[in-house]
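Document type: protein sequence-to-structure record

Subject area: structural biology

Format: plain text, a pair of labelled lines:
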Amino acid sequence: MWYPPKVTAPPTNPISISDAKRQCNVLHDDDDDLLEGYITAARDYVEKYTGTALATQTVEVKCDGFCDMARLPVTPAQSVTSIAYVDTAGVEQTLPTTAYEERFDNLDAAIVLKYGHQWPAIRPGSRIKLTAVVGYQTLPANIKHAMLLWIADAYEKRENDALSDWTAFDALLCNDRR
């Protein structure tokens, strides 16, 4: 079982102020702070909607057993920084990179043993800690467009509005949900 990820190196926003201003037809700098807030809110909303990390960030996630490595909870994964565990003697160890390989296929991410290796025994009740770099290196165009739609809608309406069943936002993001 995976536990909720902890962000240890926060992401930068994948949408620039100039992109947001162009989408909203804003020609002044008065609303830059407001737009920055909308960009952050849009990133957070889309990350939760899709179940993926949008911008490059470092996360730490914990699990109960090495069998959980067959499907990582945060994608898209870029690299594994470390895999730490507590051995049966109660000493924290780091799994050598020579023992495993990363299998990152867009929204499917796994860590598997290399041939001839086996997972080490861990102390009962301890957790395995995976530190990884996740997020898109280049944000897909459909996700960027959905975020810009969300930002423009938030900028234009600035108050609660009734949501319809299916929107362009949903259509742009439906294939990127995990």
